[in-house]
């Protein structure tokens, strides 16, 4: 198939097809007369490229999708786009508000808060690749929209950004695959449901422990078993806790989050109190685990 027919079949311009050839995404055979002969495989790739471009993916993202395992690159692209789409929705909300009240100063302040939130969200995604970074974004996002009103908050914000820029999060390949599998089904709705359940438990920890005693004791017994100690899940938990301890997550990132965000500090304090109560009833078993 020659380029004119390819363009018609794939709904692409000749210039676009030429660009994708320059980028090495397709490599049609060149005949003796200089014409390029596109195979069925080339056409199939260009059809995929056309779909991905319509979905707004960059050339770099398209390359990742085409070169990686089926589904993996698409999920990565989706995870990368989610914060961008959320930012667009926020900007749309601010624009609608500005059109109604004409409050330019309020809008400017809201935009600065949005920029601060996005800086941390982007760095979380970069520092913790894959679905885990998206999960952390979902977890911490509700606490990142407040204003920075003091020098102490600004310093905490700067520490968070610097830590995320420098931290190196690495796991053995099998544990990274297990972590990705664990968080693959997480989305904003599931995170919101979990957060609501956690808030309910923290509001009445004694009632929660009493109501769920049987389930909790079964879980504690399993975690104390040899079966769990020999499992990849235990290795993953151990690796995450070690990362928390040695990377600065426990003594830099979380304390700085508590200073930056009053709402996060309140949540964190309730979680630690709940953990204390849990340990009173079930020694050597802790509620607190990443993220907190």
Written account of the structure:
With 292 residues, the chain is mainly alpha-helical. The chain has two domains: 3-67, Orthogonal Bundle (Multidrug-efflux Transporter Regulator, Chain: A, Domain 2), CATH 1.10.1660; 72-281, no CATH class. Helices cover 75% and strands 1% of the residues. The chain contains 16 helices and two strands. The chain has helices at residues 3-10, 14-22, 40-54, 59-67, 72-101, 104-127, 131-140, 151-166, 173-183, 188-203, 205-211, 213-223, 226-229, 232-247, 249-260, 262-281; strands spanning 29-30, 36-37. The chain has a two-stranded antiparallel sheet. It is globular, with a radius of gyration of 24 Å. 15% of the residues are buried.
Descriptive terms for the model:
mainly alpha, Multidrug-efflux Transporter Regulator, Chain: A, Domain 2, 2 domains, 292 residues, 75% helix
Give the SSE map.
Blueprint: H1 3-10, H2 14-22, E1 29-30, E2 36-37, H3 40-54, H4 59-67, H5 72-101, H6 104-127, H7 131-140, H8 151-166, H9 173-183, H10 188-203, H11 205-211, H12 213-223, H13 226-229, H14 232-247, H15 249-260, H16 262-281
Antiparallel strand pairs: 1-2
Helix pairs in contact: 4-5, 5-6, 6-7, 6-8, 8-15, 9-14, 10-11, 15-16
Summarize the structure.
With about 290 residues, the chain is an all-alpha fold. It folds into two domains: about 5-65, Orthogonal Bundle (Multidrug-efflux Transporter Regulator, Chain: A, Domain 2); about 70-280, no CATH class.
């Amino acid at each position: 198939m020659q380029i004119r027919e390819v363009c018609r079949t794939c709904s692409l311009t000749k210039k676009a097809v030429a660009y994708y050839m320059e980028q090495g995404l397709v490599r049609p055979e060149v005949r003796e007369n200089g014409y390029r002969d596109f195979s069925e495989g080339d056409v199939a790739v260009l059809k995929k490229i056309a779909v991905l471009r319509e979905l707004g993916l960059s050339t770099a993202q398209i390359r990742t999708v085409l070169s990686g395992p089926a589904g993996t690159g698409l999920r990565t692209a989706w995870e990368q786009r989610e914060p961008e789409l959320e930012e667009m929705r926020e900007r749309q909300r601010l624009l609608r508000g500005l059109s109604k009240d004409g409050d330019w100063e309020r809008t400017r302040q809201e935009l600065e808060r949005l920029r601060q939130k996005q800086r941390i969200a982007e760095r979380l995604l970069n520092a913790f690749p894959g679905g885990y970074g998206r999960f952390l974004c979902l977890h911490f996002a509700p606490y990142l929209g407040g204003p920075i009103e003091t020098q102490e908050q600004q310093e905490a914000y700067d520490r968070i950004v610097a830590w995320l820029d420098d931290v190196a999060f690495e796991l053995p390949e099998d544990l990274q695959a297990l972590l990705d599998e664990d968080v693959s089904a997480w989305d904003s709705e599931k995170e919101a449901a979990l957060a609501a359940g956690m808030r309910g438990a923290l509001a009445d920890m004694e009632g929660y422990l009493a109501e769920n005693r049987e389930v909790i004791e079964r879980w504690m017994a399993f975690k104390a078993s040899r079966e769990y100690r020999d499992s990849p899940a235990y290795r993953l938990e151990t690796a995450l806790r070690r990362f928390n301890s040695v990377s600065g997550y426990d003594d830099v990132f979380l304390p700085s989050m508590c200073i930056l965000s009053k709402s996060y500090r309140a949540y964190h304090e309730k979680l630690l109190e709940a953990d204390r109560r849990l340990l009173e009833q079930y020694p050597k078993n802790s509620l607190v685990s990443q993220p907190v």
